[in-house]
Fold:
Amino acid sequence: MSAVTQGRAELVPVLVVGAGGMGRTWIRTVLDSDASRLVGVVDVVDGAAQRAVQDLVPEHEQPGIATGTELLEVAARSGAEAVIDVTIPAAHHQVTADALHAGYPVLGEKPCAATLAEAVSLAGHAEETGRLFMVSQSRRNNPHLHEARRLADGLGGAGIVDTRFAKAPRFGGFRDEMEHPLLVDMAIHAFDAGRVLLAGTPVSVTATSYNPGWSWYAGDAAATVAITYDTGAVHTYSGSWCSPGDETSWNGDWALHCEGGSVRWDGETPPTAHPSGGDPVPGRAPGPQERWELDASLAEFCAALRGGPVPDSEVHGNVWTQAIVEAAVRSADTGRRVLLADLLDEALVEARELDSADGRSRALQAWKTGASGLGAR
Ligand SMILES: NC(=O)c1ccc[n+]([C@@H]2O[C@H](COP(=O)([O-])OP(=O)(O)OC[C@H]3O[C@@H](n4cnc5c(N)ncnc54)[C@H](O)[C@@H]3O)[C@@H](O)[C@H]2O)c1
Structure:
């Protein structure tokens, strides 16, 4: 829906929770959005929400934006209809569950939660409350990625997807200390994008992680991963965060292998189809009306609240991506192939324990298995 057809009353009034680096990016996205309007900002650090508003919101609009440190108090005062959770992963479970139980639909930053068990628990909280919980997995909202899928479908559909990722960022901070910085903080995007390109549901993950002698990371900054799907398709990923020189784009370099040819995508420009025995066919360039990244997540979320379709990244669908990450870490640590069904069953047991201690959700009691509760995606 365009800004011209959407009246102010139809704009979804949203509260941004978490005013750190990404929270500020979300505040800008909401201010520029034609689907929502900013009514409040919350951060546990005293004064942080107010500072973000002062820095980012035009001065004449600032008095209309509620700020504070208490989510539910500010939400009520602001007149918010929905919450965007941009807190640190360790806070996602608490913030999202509190918002859902207070009646607010939630758009949450990736990862869904700090652990797979917490993510499964949140799927239950969404069921219990009947509120939408969508995870913003921003890199899946890339028109080139969806064009690559279209081109591959024209060649019979991708059976093998291969991603090569090479970067050499000097972040400093928590990533330098994490045990699996690449797998947990970055590869999640490629695993999720692989799910856009391949039909079916992921089944198993085999991973090896490593840290070259010259790496400036404490944990493993590189990994090789194979993800199998129930359609027989396989996504192979080889990534490194300590490979200077011939670096790929941030999305990585992609090759899609199909019966009738292949598709190449450099992660930045339109993909190209290479039909077997034919000339290369350039993919379509995105039009000006196409939505990207956070703006696309926000538009999809708001449309769903106004009666539109359930987003693909609704929590039940998104948990599969988090399961791939957790399986890759488990496989890298144990040297074994990990079945997602087993991992999800373990997470379900743990999530039920979390929920019974919390006392607000009994929804997971009805799940027969972790995988069936999520539904095949
Ligand atoms: N999609 C992407 O490309 C992308 C990029 C960067 C970060 N992220 C995600 O965005 C989220 C935030 O990352 P960041 O880099 O902004 O982190 P950050 O540490 O800069 O900011 C997090 C903010 O949340 C606040 N906070 C923590 N617990 C809170 C609570 N219970 N209630 C309210 N506020 C709370 C902190 O005070 C801090 O200001 C993470 O989930 C991260 O994975 C996504």
